[in-house]
Amino acid sequence: MSIPRKAVIRQNWFDQGGEAYARFRPGYPPELAQYLASVSAGRTLAVDVGCGSGQLAVHLARHFDRVLGVDPSADQITHATAHPRVDYVYATAEALPVARHGAGLIVAAQAAHWFDLPRFYQEVRRIGQPGAALALVSYGVLKLDDALDVRFSRFYHDEIGPYWPAERALVDTGYAGLPFPFDERTPPRLQIRLAWCLDDLLGYIATWSAVRRLREAARDDVLQGFAADLAALWGDPSHRRAVHWPINMRLGRL
Question: Taking the model in full, what pTM does it have?
Answer without folding.
Answer: 0.85
